[in-house]
Design goal:
YacF-like; about 20% strand
Length: about 260
Amino acid sequence: MPTQAVIFEQPLNERIRICLRIESLVERLDRFIALDSEHAAYQALLTVLEITALVERGDIKQEIIKELDRQHKVLTALVSHQSVDKSRLEITLNQLKQALNRMHGMDGRLGEHLKAIDFLLAVKQRSVIPGGSCDFDLPQLRYWLNRPHEQRRQDIERWSAPYRELNRTLVLILKNIRDSALAEPVDAPKGFFQESLDPAQPNQMLRIALDSSDLFPEISAGKHRYSIRFMRYPDSVDQLPQQIKETVSFQLMRCTL
């Protein structure tokens, strides 16, 4: 795969969709929390609330435990294969087992630890209103933003601690899935590519690597097939994107661990 390739990912089930969303939010949190500014602190706070809203949908912890257990069983079945790097496989199996133990050791439902904090509840309620977090609406927010950067950072780290522990496990899950596929060169005539999915396979994710940074794929995926349309903006993002008329060469990774 080209070192400068732009990679787009498409989850093929709800479990991986949630994993990718949490991974993205934690990466955003890391960027904001490192910056010493009021605006960055506020965005970090909103990101914590956004992760909270996501993990409160359903039982995320049980879904992650199921995925860890599934991966462990699949990879354990490969131990007897002659072509497998057994030392590397053993490391991965140990990592999965340790992650399972960590997840089982997490008490309660994710997000419960923040429900008793009135300050966060107030920010959550006002943040859905356009301009609702002004100083006259939330003087307690202004007080918090006026605190030193290190104190704000410690608050964010404390509130997000369970999510970082969760993300540590998600990074392992997603790494195993991403590493399960080799890049295959593919052509999309007139900017369109379509392929069937084998429902008997554990289809997890599609990864598309493009050399060009002025194109992007629109991916539509169902249980039995997926299609990719490569799009380009004519002049600016103010206009509607248009499907490419020429053949597009790209790298395709079908992740089916």
